[in-house]
Amino acid sequence: MDYDPPALFGKRLIELRKKLNWSQEHLALESGLARSYLGEVERGKRNIALINICVLAHTLGVAPSALLDFGTPAPKPAKKKQSGND
């Protein structure tokens, strides 16, 4: 399985929203974000902006970091290859 942060974020958002028994529509009304936008975020189709992460966290009553807690460690980034022209 590939590491896909937008998809993982979307799954986490769904999890936190459902803990409150909220629909996407309710979250949209409470947060001021469009329901269609939230649907795309939950499906991992949008790369959400930091400001919107903070808006959603505030609306859900959690710290912004809670939305980024995917439960699995991020993979190590690949090392850059040396070009030899340094």
Sheet bearing the most strands, described? none
Summed up, the helix count is: 5
Radius of gyration, taken over Cα atoms and rounded to an integer in Å: 16 Å
Low-pLDDT stretches are: none
Order of helices and strands: HHHHH
Instruction: Provide the helix percentage.
Output: 40-55%
Strand content: under 5%
Measured between the Cα atoms of the first and last residue, the distance is 36 Å
Average pLDDT works out at: 91
**Tally of domains:** 1
Q: How many strand segments? A: 0
Explain what you see:
There is one protein chain. With 86 residues, the chain is mainly alpha-helical. The model has no long low-confidence stretch (mean pLDDT 91). The longest helix is centred in the N-terminal third of the chain and has 15 residues. 53% of the residues lie in helices and 0% in strands. The chain starts with a helix and ends in a 19-residue tail after the last helix. The chain has one domain: 434 Repressor (Amino-terminal Domain). The protein is elongated and about 55 Å long.
Give structural attributes.
434 Repressor (Amino-terminal Domain); mainly alpha; 0% strand; elongated; single chain; 86 residues; 5 helices; Lambda_DNA-bd_dom_sf
